[in-house]
């Protein structure tokens, strides 16, 4: 599904990634770990085609992202649902409306919205908060709404960039369990984190990046630095 083929990325004299080769199969749950500045964010930007590699190629479902014309980028990015550390919810929209907005943006019908949004709210265990605005929700609830928004259009891949960075242990556990549930339903999940507890709770494949280099690729869910 995803293949980084000898990928390097440099910003002037700064090396962000160096000769990274990595493959991720459909329906995998992969944690990308490393210290701040290790290259995790650059890896995601390349996958989202926000950046182009200096050397090598990034493939998504056999598509070489270097060859994507700018006009096709919005369609490509619909295959990917994004979850951010700072939630990025729309403050003047309710939980229901935040999720519905993602459907409206891609032209889904009112009937589809009325059918799908309640299902997603149930999936993230927030059906009782559908009329709440973001400032009425806890950090963990905001993140679960953000996850709901990311999956509402049934993307092939969910990317969660430090999704528990602002959360306490209880809310962290709830977010991890929801991401695991989404993965079990058949969606590929890629998470970046520096939290050992998160990696241990997921218990799946762990890829470690250090100073731009892929230094470990473990299948047993261990965080080793």
Give descriptors for this structure.
four-stranded antiparallel beta sheet, 7 helices, 27% strand, six-stranded mixed beta sheet
In short:
This protein has 225 residues and is of the alpha/beta class. The protein contains 7 helices and 10 strands. The strands form 2 sheets. Strands 6-7-8-3-9-10 form a 6-stranded mixed sheet, sandwiched between helices.
Outline the structure in words.
The protein has helices at residues 40-47, 73-77, 95-105, 110-123, 139-151, 169-184, 196-202, and strands spanning 2-11, 14-24, 29-33, 55-60, 63-64, 80-83, 157-161, 188-193, 205-210, 213-218. The protein is α/β, with parallel strands linked by helices. It has a domain at 90-153. The strands form two sheets. It has a six-stranded mixed sheet with strand order 6-7-8-3-9-10, with helices on both faces. The protein has a four-stranded antiparallel sheet with strand order 2-1-4-5, with helices on one face. A hairpin with a 2-residue loop joins strand 4 (55-60) and strand 5 (63-64). Helix 3 packs parallel to helix 5 (139-151) and helix 5 runs parallel beside helix 6 (169-184).
SSE blueprint:
Blueprint: E1 2-11, E2 14-24, E3 29-33, H1 40-47, E4 55-60, E5 63-64, H2 73-77, E6 80-83, H3 95-105, H4 110-123, H5 139-151, E7 157-161, H6 169-184, E8 188-193, H7 196-202, E9 205-210, E10 213-218
Helix pairs in contact: 3-4, 3-5, 4-5, 5-6
Beta-strand portion reads 25-35%
Task: Tally the beta strands.
Answer: 10
- The helix content is 25-40%
Structural category:
alpha/beta
Please tell me how large the radius of gyration is.
Answer: 17 Å
End-to-end Cα distance, whole Å, is 27 Å
Helix count equals 7
Order of SSEs, N→C? EEEHEEHEHHHEHEHEE
Please describe the biggest sheet, giving its number of strands, its sense, and whether it closes into a barrel: 6 strands, mixed
Low-confidence stretches: none
Q: What's the rounded overall pLDDT mean?
A: 94
What's the shape? Answer: globular
Q: How is the largest sheet built, in terms of strand order?
A: 6-7-8-3-9-10
């Amino acid at each position: 599904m995803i293949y980084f083929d000898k990928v390097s990325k440099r910003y002037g004299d700064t090396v962000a990634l160096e000769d990274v080769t990595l493959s991720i199969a459909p329906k995998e749950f992969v944690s990308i770990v490393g210290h701040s500045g290790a290259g995790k964010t650059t890896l995601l930007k390349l996958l989202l085609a926000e950046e182009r590699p200096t050397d090598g190629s990034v493939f998504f479902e056999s598509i070489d992202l270097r060859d994507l014309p700018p006009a096709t980028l919005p369609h490509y990015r619909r295959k990917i649902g994004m979850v951010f550390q700072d939630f990025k919810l729309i403050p003047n929209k309710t939980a229901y409306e935040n999720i519905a907005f993602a459907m409206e943006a891609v032209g889904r019908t009112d009937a589809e919205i009325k059918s799908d949004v309640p299902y997603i709210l149930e999936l993230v265990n927030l059906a009782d908060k559908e009329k709440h605005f973001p400032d009425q929700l806890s950090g963990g609830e905001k993140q679960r709404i953000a996850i709901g928004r990311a999956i509402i259009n049934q993307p092939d891949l969910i990317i969660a960039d430090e999704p528990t960075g602002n959360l306490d242990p209880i809310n962290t556990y709830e977010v991890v369990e929801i991401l695991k549930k989404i993965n079990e339903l058949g969606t590929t999940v890629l998470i970046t984190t520096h939290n050992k507890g998160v990696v241990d709770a997921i218990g799946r494949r762990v890829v470690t990046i250090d100073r731009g280099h892929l230094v470990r690729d473990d299948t047993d869910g261990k965080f080793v630095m």
